[in-house]
Design brief:
- The protein has about 170 residues and is α+β, with helices and mostly antiparallel strands.
- The protein has two domains: about 90 residues, no CATH class; about 70 residues, no CATH class.
- The chain has a three-stranded antiparallel beta sheet, with no helix packed on it. The protein has a two-stranded antiparallel ribbon with strand order 1-2.
- Strand 1 and strand 2 form a beta hairpin.
- Helix 4 runs antiparallel to helix 6.
- The two termini are about 35 Å apart.
- The protein binds zinc ion (ZN).
- Zinc ion (ZN) binds next to loops.
- The site of zinc ion has 6 residues, from loops.
Length: about 170
């Protein structure tokens, strides 16, 4: 097994990747049974699929956008249509953004329970809160690994296929 195949062996076991690969219809876009399912699937999208050869492939295009007079690199996913900045957020900003979203989750958790919402709706809030509580840690770990890989790549150009080439990924300032 090649080094690259080995690297992605476990990654490819992610249910999200299988589900999204199966939900990609003609034109290469995600499509569910109905609007609601399409929305859920888009929210799940890991921005990669497994191709016919069984390799993990990213499905993004990168572009530069002007934001507040500055040029910022963006990734745009062809599967789900979402866009996000290439540059990772600073630790403190990640904490702040997560805390701000957590306020919404807390409002929802409290209110949905208080109004006597369905157990499904209450559990939805609980799951979201539990996932979000770990988000800064997960995000920062991943950002640190990308930074490390990027600095290694500057020394040694990576020629391989699969998903190892991040292209023009920009990292923390
Ligand atoms: Zn996507």
């Amino acid at each position: 097994m090649s080094k690259l195949k080995k690297k992605y062996a476990d990654t490819k076991k992610a249910k999200a990747i299988t589900t999204i690969t199966q939900s990609v219809k003609k034109k290469g876009k995600i499509k569910g049974k109905n609007k609601r399912e399409t929305k859920t699937l888009r929210g799940m999208c890991p921005h990669h699929i497994i191709n016919k050869k069984g390799n993990l492939k990213k499905r993004i295009i990168t572009e530069v956008k002007e934001l507040d007079g500055k040029n910022e690199g963006y990734c745009f996913c062809e599967l789900c249509g979402e866009a996000w900045p290439m540059r990772f957020m600073e630790k403190d900003d990640v904490k702040e953004a997560t805390a701000s979203f957590m306020e919404l989750v807390n409002q929802y958790k409290f209110a949905s329970t208080e109004i006597g919402s369905s157990s499904k709706n209450v559990d939805y809030g609980a799951q979201l809160g539990a996932m979000l509580a770990n988000f800064p840690k997960m995000y920062n770990r991943t950002a640190n690994i990308v930074e490390k890989q990027d600095s290694v790549k500057k020394k040694k150009k990576n020629k391989s296929g699969d998903s190892a080439n991040f292209g023009e990924w920009k990292i923390r300032r």
